[in-house]
């Protein structure tokens, strides 16, 4: 009987705790920024230096007017980033859109990375130095590479967990409501 009474009390406490948790969950403020809402404006206010163009300033005004951009935030020391870099000379031309690589590492390291993987002369590939660490601070990356498709206004369209195939990227562009301008 004593066991049954203890089990009954424990059950009531657990049920009460569940109700309290549900109530707390229901009353979270609606103003909390989700990652998705933060990502809607990926490029606004962010500035970079173009590593191979005399450190020219790159901001929202540098976004191409006629095409989305695929941006890969990477680390020169990241194994996955290095594996992806090996694929870029073949993939970037197939993507048919600009591909920007951004990193908070010093420009000399970014130049060495580009040279190590023969990326310096890949058409439509641009290396950006995130001197303010704006992207990293804004998104609080849990991993790199962080790959995102953005539209001409710098709005986030889609995050990819790995380099997309050219076919997948073209399908995302073709079917995305935010990219109506680019549908062929």
Indicate the CATH topology of the largest domain: Glutaredoxin
Structural class, judged by helices and strands?
alpha/beta
Strand content: 15-25%
- How far apart are the termini? 75 Å
Enumerate the spans where pLDDT stays under 50 for 5 or more consecutive residues: 1-32
Number of domains: 2
CATH superfamily membership of the largest domain: Glutaredoxin
Q: In CATH, what is the class of the largest domain? A: Alpha Beta
Radius of gyration: 23 Å
Order of helices and strands: HHEEEHEHEHEEH
In short:
The chain folds into 2 domains: 1-30; 35-182, Glutaredoxin (3-Layer(aba) Sandwich), CATH 3.40.30.10.
Keywords:
2 domains, Glutaredoxin, 184 residues
Structure notes:
With 184 residues, this protein is of the alpha/beta class. It folds into two domains: 1-30; 35-182, 3-Layer(aba) Sandwich (Glutaredoxin). Helix content is 40%, strand content 17%. It has six helices and seven strands. It has helices spanning 2-26, 35-39, 79-95, 107-116, 134-139, 166-175; strands spanning 48-50, 56-58, 69-73, 99-103, 125-129, 146-150, 156-160. The chain has a seven-stranded mixed β-sheet, covered by helices on one side. β6 and β7 form a beta hairpin. The model is unreliable at 1-32 (pLDDT under 50).
